[in-house]
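User: My instructor asked us to take a sequence, write out its structure as tokens, and then describe one feature of it. I'm not sure where to start. Here is the sequence I was given:
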Amino acid sequence: MASGVRKVVLAYSGGLDTSVILRWLQETYGCEVVTFTADLGQGEELEPARRKAELLGVREIHIEDLKETFVRDYVMPMFRANALYEGVYLLGTAIARPLIAKRLVEIARATGADAVAHGATGKGNDQVRFELTCYALDPRIRVIAPWREWDLTSRAKLLAYAESRQIPIPRGKGGEPPYSTDANLLHISYEGRALEDPWQEPEEDMFTRTVDPRRAPDEPEYVEIAFERGDPVAVNGERLSPAALLARLNTIAGRHGIGRVDLVENRFVGMKSRGVYETPGGTLWHIAHRAIESLTLDRGAAHLKDELAPRYAELVYNGFWFAPEREMLQALVDKSQERVSGEVRLKLYKGGVQVVGRRSPYSLYLQEYATFEEDTVYHQKDAEGFIKLNALRLRIRRLVHGPGDA
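Assistant: Let's start with the prediction itself. The structure tokens for your sequence are:
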């Protein structure tokens, strides 16, 4: 039996992995286990997790509704940055980890626990995200990662362990354990089983948040999203709290089959992995935010943001939310959003999204300059000198080196 730990706070979902971990911690460390379950809008009833923890002998059970905190303090700052990992992934799993880990550390302090524990595997990114956050917030915290210690190295061994200790096992429709999933208000991910073959198309009945686009309504739907200082605040004229707004967008986009992504990504630990994601509301949000920025951001500011967005996304993906470089980038991003306010109108149809309208009191689009009709503010002859000055170095190079190849 391992020693040195009297009490540990476990990030507990109530699923197979964390239920096995709970029992394993009790048996291996002989310690008291405190469970923490965060309601981030995963769409599941959390009382079963409480009952399962009680069944496994847990006395201190923490279940917290963090949906508003999650969207306001984590999703919104990230979406101001237009962060897409490898140009595709809206970071639904990654952005939830710093909040969960932060609360783990805070509960450990409040309960006098010696350590925290998580159920992330030794192959994945989440172990890095959880632990970087824990160490950033409490340099002396002890982190227990059972997947790096035990010999339960396969799903079959996990199932056998659970059955030998009468731990209830969630099952899929066909009696098999379900896909490995992670869900919150922003997205749901699917990994494992047939998805480990990147040539294999996902089964349609796997999806839970979006309808099959072929079965979506035959008429398009229009939705208007209002922004203030870079954040969405209203849908179709109705002001909503951050979590309620994202939930509304999820419902609207989901019924049109919007937000599915199937990708092979590069994990921070070095390997490639295949995952399928549903991010319906976040997809609308991201597209609309880019649209309102197209009106309100100066070209230089917009292009600088586009250069920095991949770096920001990589920091979130790799678990550096509480790192100084992410906070520095956030300050720059937030400065850029001071006049990113207005409305965007989207047209939704069978899995597709089109921007069909945008307006802002801070719009830098001036029709008198942009028009193809006659105007009195732009002198077209000015373009001649502009072009010749920009061409000067190209002309000199050709004069010096001769005709050569074009």
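For the description part of your assignment, you could build on this observation: The chain has three domains: 7-66+93-179, 183-359, 367-401. Try explaining in your own words what that tells you about the chain.
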